[in-house]
Write a structure and sequence with these properties.
It is a single chain. With 313 residues, this protein is α+β, with helices and mostly antiparallel strands. Helix 2 crosses helix 8 and helix 3 crosses helix 4. The termini are far apart. The chain contains eight helices and six strands. Strands 1, 2, 3, 4, 5 and 6 form a six-stranded antiparallel sheet that branches. The protein is 55% helix and 12% strand.
């Protein structure tokens, strides 16, 4: 009668398999270790707050610059910049997440339906093509760095090109290295350095793209605001003394009031940091905007744009 025995796998074989499972592209020698290295140098929370602050500052700068006003005059707080940053990151985050998911789903679909021979044939065509496209994208990004003016209308494209090009070139490099060094011991130092450089370059590309997009959002929001000026509440400004406002702003002398002058036909854009940012109702590019200090010498009233304003105070 034959008996069945449970054969125990020798421990050295288990350890060898464990080491092979980690490999050059694995956690200890690959991207995970590189991320740990970067995380030990830069606190993730601090970095995230700094990025959001920068994107918000970009949005604010280009919003106010559209009207010829520097954003620093408005005394915006850190909270203001962080809130403004969300306006410029929705689309980039959605785009990155969508492309990542589509790439993963496409890889799983092809891997499950193609035989090993078909997959090797596909890689023989895809790898050189990816290398050429990666070089072209990185070259395009470098040209945009050296001369950014011709590419300002291509919002975010240079940064996306840098990130995508680096990812393609690194993927080609890893595939060729895996084929050339099959069965050899990985070199952890080189792998960590390569992945660290990859994360830095890809992050810089995405940072560049999102910064450009945040600036474009600021300009777009400013343009949209100008189209809404006629429908916004009429800001009636009372002042204890005359202000040097252009003739396009209606001025009415007040006699029976502590406020001597009233100005009509204004629209309040924002009040922040003790400053009032006002525009004429008929504002167009080139017409002055007004930034006034919020003091007791000024008082504002808001009137529905369709309601008449009396000729006297």
């Amino acid at each position: 009668m034959n008996t069945l025995r449970a054969h125990r796998v020798p421990r050295p074989l288990l350890e060898a398999g464990h080491r092979a499972g980690k490999g050059d592209a694995g956690g200890d020698f690959g991207p995970v270790r590189a991320l740990r290295l970067l995380g030990s140098v830069i606190a993730p929370t601090t970095l995230l707050a700094a990025l959001l602050y920068f994107f918000g500052q970009q949005q604010a700068h280009h919003f106010f610059n559209y009207f010829g006003v520097h954003h620093s005059l408005m005394g915006l707080t850190t909270e203001d910049y962080l809130l403004r940053s969300t306006d410029g990151i929705y689309v980039p985050l959605t785009g990155v997440a969508t492309v990542t998911l589509l790439g993963l789903w496409a890889y799983r679909f092809l891997r499950a339906r193609l035989s090993d021979a078909a997959l090797r044939a596909l890689l023989r065509v895809a790898v050189p093509t990816a290398a050429l496209v990666g070089v072209a994208l990185v070259g395009f990004a470098l040209v945009a760095v050296l001369d950014p003016v011709p590419f300002r209308a291509l919002v975010g494209l240079p940064g996306v090109s840098l990130a995508a090009g680096v990812l393609l070139l690194v993927s080609v490099s890893r595939l060729r290295a895996a084929a050339a060094t099959r069965g050899t011991k990985p070199r952890p130092l080189g792998a960590v350095a390569e992945w660290t450089a990859t994360f830095v370059l890809v992050s810089l590309g995405l940072f560049w793209a999102v910064g450009d997009y945040s600036a474009a959002v600021g300009r777009d929001r400013a343009y949209v605001f100008t189209t809404l000026l006629p429908s916004l509440p009429n800001t009636v400004l009372y002042s204890a003394e005359g202000l040097a406002l252009p003739p396009s702003v209606r001025r009415v002398q007040c006699t029976a009031s502590i406020y001597k002058v009233r100005y009509d036909g204004l629209r309040l854009v924002v009040q922040s940091g003790g400053q009032l940012f006002l525009l004429p109702a008929e504002w167009t590019p080139g017409v002055p905007a007004f930034v006034l200090p919020r003091t007791d010498a000024l008082r504002m009233e808001f009137v529905d744009p369709g309601s008449p304003i009396p000729d006297t105070c």
